[in-house]
Amino acid sequence: MTDLSGDTAGLAPDVSSSFEGHRRELCAYTYRMLGSSFEAEDAVQETFTRAWRSYDSFEGRASLRSWLYRIATNVCLDMLDGPQRRARPMDLAGPSRPDAPLPMPQPDYVWIEPIPNALAFGADPAEHASAKDTLRLAFVAACQHLPATQRAILIMREVLRFSASETAEALTMSPASVNSALQRARATMSKIQPADTDTYDETNEDQRRLVDDFVKAFEAYDMDTLTTLLKADVALSMPPLELWISGPENVAAFMLGHGHACRDSRLIRLEGANGLPAFGHYKPSDEPGVWIPWSITVLELDGDTVAGLNFFLDTDKLFPLFGLSKELREPA
Fold first, then answer.
1. Which range of residues forms the domain containing residue 111?
2. Is residue 199 part of a domain?
């Protein structure tokens, strides 16, 4: 994390706390822009660094929040200066056969990454409810199809509810140009964004029971029960592997084949990722009574079924991000 102490001389002591009050919403914004929780944190830190260095020129013509978003947008546009966009495996190719050879892992910059709820959501439950739908994996992946400036405009206008004038000021554009770009972004999103069927609500007793039933079936490796919980077109993906499996029977075949090492796994419930149920997934090691990291597992729900099984395998990066230990041990 950047040391800002050298940039703060002469600034009022409450400036730092005023910046920090916007950290989570800025992190959520930069995550939607970049598709990476790690890059989002870097972007917010760079935003604060630039804000410190130019604070003397901030004359209050805009709100502090709008000014920080302007800086954050410029940081993201700098980071997005290239053709690469992050994706999900299902964005890149059709489904794989469950017995097909496993492909080689792709670099981490290829993939949409999960973000812990704690990094993106504030303490206000109403704010959480309004923000979580636009942090879903499918929405973030769809945004990556937009040119960077259109992406910023869509998020600022549709998600953050900035006015056309506020957005134009943040991006140094005219309101007419903002509105034109927004229409193009909406047209693109209407073609590529999946139907809004992801209806997870952590206060819904039936959905909480569905998640509990999934955990019990998975830890028991009871594929007969597990498949009854899955949507007919359920998708299983495992970034950084460029493959995905579709359909309950194929998911079961994959888990009993390539995925057999996950039998007797342990799932540690997290506070959530992307507003969805999430777990630290540990698989058995060669040492009895010891489980080792396998994935951050994120579930997508559609009503009373599991619609998506996302196993993010880069545990060296992701387990520390979610505050998870390097192993589980059976109590002595």
1. 5-192
2. no
